[in-house]
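Sample entry (296 residues):
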Amino acid sequence: METPERILRRLEFSVVRRLDGFLFGDYTGLFYGPSLDLAEVREYVPGDEVRRIDWNVTARTTRLHVRQYREEKELTAWLAVDLSPSMAFGTRRVLKRQLAAEFCGAASYIVTRHGDKVGAVFFPHPYLIPPRTGRRQALRVLHALQRLQTPPASGRTDLGRVLRDLNRMLRRRSLVFVVSDFLSEEGWEVPLRQLGHRHDVVAVRITDPAESELPDVGVLTLQDPETGQQVRVDTSDPAVRRAYRERVAQWEARLQQAFRQARVDVLTLSTHTSIVEPLVRFVTYRRRRRWSSRGR
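Predicted structure, serialized as C-alpha cells:
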C-alpha cells in the first residue's frame, strides 16, 4: 500500500503539474465559484466600469451608483467524504473509494498550497479533521482515508443527516465538497439545498461504468453493499438489461434534478479515467461563470 507521502507526490506529479500547465501556475481562486459578497454601493467616479452601475439605486437617487464587491481573502474548504460500503466498489482502474481519495488528496494539496485551510469529515465514521493549512494537513486527510475502514453492511447511508449536521457545524461561509456516489436513503435533497444556500457547495459524484449497464454474462448473484441483500439476476435476458437501464435513467434524472434545485455545481469522476480532465473542465466552467457574474 502506498504511503500518504507517496500518494501526495504522485498526485503532485500527475494532477497538479498537469493543472499547472493549464493554468500557468495561477491558482488564485481556483475552486472559487461565482459568489461574491456585495460590500457597498457607492457613487460613480470617472474610471469605474459601466457594467458595475446599479441601476436600481441610480434610479432612486438620480445619481450614478456602482456596486463594489468584496472577496474573502482566506478560503476555508471542507471535504465531506463518503466511506460507506458502496464506495468500496470498482471494476476499472481503481475502486470508488480510491478515486475519492485521489480527489481529496489533490484538492487538499491545491487549497493548502497557497495558505488556505482545509478540513474534512468522513461518514458514516464520526471522524473530523479540523481545518488547517500546509502540506501536513493534506497528508492528514490522506492518512485518514487510508486508516478508516469500510464499515460492514448495515443499511443505506443517511446522507441527509450528514448534510444537516454539516450545516449546523459550519458557522462561517465555506467551500464544501460533498464527495460521494449519492447512493443514499431518500431525503437528502432538501438538506443539500439548505447547505448550498449558506455555502459554496460542490457535489463530487464518484461513479463506476458497471453501475450504469448490466453486462451480458449469464446468471449473476448481486449483493447490495449497503444492506447486504442478495438477488440472482439473469443478465442474458434482454428484458432484464433493458429494465435495469430504465431504472438507472430514472435515478440519473432524479439525481440531476436534485442538483439543479439545490443550485450546486457537480464534478463527476469515474473509476475508469484520470481525475485531471474532469478537473480542468470543472475549473474552466467555474472561472468563466465567476467572471461572468462579476461583469453583470
